[in-house]
Automatic annotation (TrEMBL):
Gene3D superfamilies: Phosphorylase Kinase, domain 1 (3.30.200.20), Transferase(Phosphotransferase) domain 1 (1.10.510.10). GO terms for molecular function: ATP binding; calcium/calmodulin-dependent protein kinase activity. The keyword Nucleotide-binding applies. CDD domains: STKc_CAMK (cd05117). It is an enzyme of class 2 (transferase). It comes from the Eukaryota. ATP binds at K25. The lineage of its organism: Eukaryota, Sar, Alveolata, Ciliophora, Intramacronucleata. Residues 1-259 form the Protein kinase domain. This is Protein kinase domain protein.
Length: 366
């Protein structure tokens, strides 16, 4: 096992026929079914991921089902979370930054062309493919993703406090439903964070951060932003426009001069190590100090409910998997009728210990 958290476990496995390593994410069906729309959410995630084909989006290769669990076979990403890498290095230069942001926008553009919005773009969901690249990112966690052209959208208001577009927080049933522009705003918050080392929406707890996020008052007149080119700041402002119709689309972002990677970079380095450390200690601690009072979802959790947290919404990072025993995989394996065709059935088999040519490994990724 290489990771666990509140509702699934992740294992590393090797496909014997090709000697290729993958990650196996195991979800406990009883636990998922007990969560608010947990079963529907997992089925929706599978459906969304099957439609994706981009180097900058995590790939779902297979889905297997047992009487107890659902297993996702996905990319094994050994580079870790983006922010962890930046804290380790302590600097990021503008040339690397523009490649990184371009890769993020390319991922969103692929989604948006398919009428899919991710709705939970945040630092924890940006993973690096390897230990040797600081820019080759992959967007993970499609637990809140949805098609824009369907009637029954699972969660109307969702995301993670501090990264949610204002139109998502302001949405009411009588309103026209928001669109893919919400992802651009969230990407803009990440851009702001990488430029400054600061989260634009500050607060001592979940509710304060949420109020600041809803008010959407962002300061661009701070010393940290003066270190970067006017082109970078111009794109940042266009991504963070609080009015969705005036906000840049992913296609417009890709045409912006800042994301022209052939352009000479100023090579300015911003020392983000201390600031990003503060982001992790202060912001993440504050957002976890939360109280809820409704059934909407933020970060795969209720936005304002008094109930318990259903899920943490972060299924692709090391600290976010639990509640599915690997022994279940060994005892009862049923390969679905086609790749990824999970049915949440109650069938099982006692005579198979290897899943689709995969063998279990207990070697932890360092």
């Amino acid at each position: 096992m290489i990771g666990k958290g509140s509702f699934a476990k992740v294992y590393m496995a090797t496909k014997k026929s090709q000697n290729i390593q993958y990650a196996i994410k195991a979800f406990n069906k009883v636990f998922m079914a007990s969560q608010h729309k947990g079963k529907q959410s997992l089925i929706n995630e599978i459906s969304i991921m099957r439609q994706l084909d981009s180097d900058h989006l995590i790939r779902l290769y297979e889905v297997y089902e047992t009487s107890n669990s659902i297993y996702f076979v996905v990319d094994l990403l050994q580079g870790g979370e983006l922010l962890h890498r930046i804290r380790e290095k302590g600097t990021i230069n503008e040339k690397d930054l523009k490649v990184l942001i371009r890769n993020l926008i390319l991922a969103l553009n692929h989604l948006h062309q398919k009428n899919i919005m991710h709705r939970d773009i945040k630092p924890e969901n940006l993973l690096l493919k390897s230990k040797y690249s600081d820019c080759d990112i992959v967007v993970a966690d499609f637990g809140l993703a949805t098609k824009t052209d369907i009637q029954n959208i699972l969660f109307k208001r969702c995301g993670t406090p501090g990264f949610v577009a204002p139109e998502v927080l302001e949405y009411k049933e009588i309103d026209k439903f928001y669109g893919v522009q919400c992802d651009i705003f969230s990407a803009g918050i990440i851009f702001y964070l990488l430029l400054t080392g600061k989260q634009p929406f500050q607060g001592k707890d979940y509710k304060q951060i949420l109020r600041q996020n809803k008010a959407c008052e962002i300061s661009f007149n701070i010393p940290e932003l003066n270190k970067f080119s006017p082109s970078a700041i111009d794109l940042l402002k266009k991504m963070l426009n609080p009015i969705p119709d005036k906000r840049f689309t992913s296609a417009q972002c890709l045409k912006h001069p800042f994301l022209d990677i052939e352009e000479d970079s100023l090579g300015i380095e911003a020392n983000l190590c201390g600031n990003l450390g503060s982001y992790e200690v202060e912001y993440l601690a504050n957002v976890r100090n939360k109280q809820f009072d409704s059934q909407d979802m933020v970060g795969s959790m209720p936005l304002f409910s008094t109930g318990k947290l259903p899920m943490n919404g972060n299924i692709n990072t090391v600290g976010s998997f639990s509640n599915a025993s690997f022994s279940n995989m060994e005892r009862k394996i049923i390969i679905s009728t086609g790749p990824g065709q999970s049915r949440f059935s109650n069938q099982g088999s006692n005579d198979c210990q290897i899943i689709g040519g995969f063998e279990k490994q207990y070697v932890q990724i360092k």
